[in-house]
Write a structure and sequence with these properties.
The chain is mainly alpha-helical and about 180 residues long. The chain has a single domain, classed as Rossmann fold (3-Layer(aba) Sandwich). It is built from nine helices and four strands; from the N terminus they run αβααβαβαααβαα. Helix 1 packs across helix 8, helix 2 crosses helix 3 and helix 5 packs antiparallel against helix 6.
Length: about 180
């Protein structure tokens, strides 16, 4: 999605997650620990003008006012589970991502770090990447102000049966809700 957006707004890409991986020593087979202060320092040494900066660590390294426009991509949790499982993600990683999406971890972090007027939420569930990138570009170029209401996926999982189905083993297809 970010490369499409960068092309639409004539900007270059800065991948915060790749930058973090290049900085962070591997501590275990599956995890790395990121020094966010060091990552912030390195990122701020980069020319960020005319750049699409992307990665889930952005709310941890930038502060309010530093990005003027923040796009948070969302996906219905059962669909996210299906997508990640189809990509071969380990079950534990799928579950971690589904839980985070269900409760809106990245949205909440972005709202806290940058304020509601900078944050824009985009539902990617049934959309093609090019159409989402176009919507983001249009909002960015129009200097749109962020506003709610924000998506609350927990309202879609209003029974323990639905919730258990979503959070069951990530190695199986999710049951329809």
């Amino acid at each position: 999605m970010a490369p499409l957006l960068a092309g639409l707004v004539d900007s270059r890409l800065v991948d915060v997650n790749a930058l973090a991986l290049s900085e962070a020593p591997r501590r275990t087979r599956a995890e790395r620990f990121v020094d966010v202060k060091k990552l912030r320092s390195r990122l701020l040494k980069t020319d960020l003008s005319r750049a699409v900066i992307f990665g889930h660590l952005i709310p941890d390294i930038l502060s309010e006012g530093e990005p003027g426009f923040v796009a948070v991509l969302r996906c219905e949790p059962a669909e996210l589970k299906r997508r990640l499982s189809a990509r071969g993600y380990p079950g534990e990683k799928v579950l971690e991502n589904v839980e985070a999406e269900l409760i809106g971890v990245v949205l909440d972090s972005s709202l806290r770090a940058f304020g509601a007027s900078a944050v824009h939420e985009y539902d990617t569930t049934g959309a093609k990447p090019a159409s989402v990138a176009r919507k983001i570009a249009d909002d960015y170029l129009a200097r749109a102000i962020g506003k709610g209401p924000w998506t609350d996926w927990t309202l879609d999982y209003d029974s323990s049966t639905k919730l258990r189905s979503l959070l069951s083993s990530a190695r199986t297809e999710p049951a329809s809700t």
